Amino acid sequence: MRALINCSDVVPTPPAPASNAHFPAGLSRRDIEQACRATPFPTLPTDPGPVTTVAPVPPS
């Protein structure tokens, strides 16, 4: 593997996020399954309004 090429100069920088991180309405930190106790999950605001729903996906 001596012929590896560093392509980092041509990888574009992604655009900034359209908004700050947040929980959808009806969800909170209590809904997170913490994977690493050494690195606590950040405190995020929850969007106001009714609980966010997702339409069920019919079986294939």
Describe this structure in words.
With 60 residues, this protein is largely without helices or strands. The protein is 0% helix and 0% strand. The protein contains no helices and no strands. The radius of gyration is 19 Å and the shape is extended. The N and C termini lie far apart (43 Å). The model has no long low-confidence stretch (mean pLDDT 88).
The biggest beta sheet reads: none
Radius of gyration: 19 Å
Regions with pLDDT < 50 over 5+ consecutive residues?
none
Count of strand segments:
0
Mean pLDDT: 88
- N- to C-terminal distance: 43 Å
**Structural class assignment:** little secondary structure
Continuous helix count: 0
Helix content: under 10%
**Beta-strand proportion:** under 5%
Inertia-based shape: extended
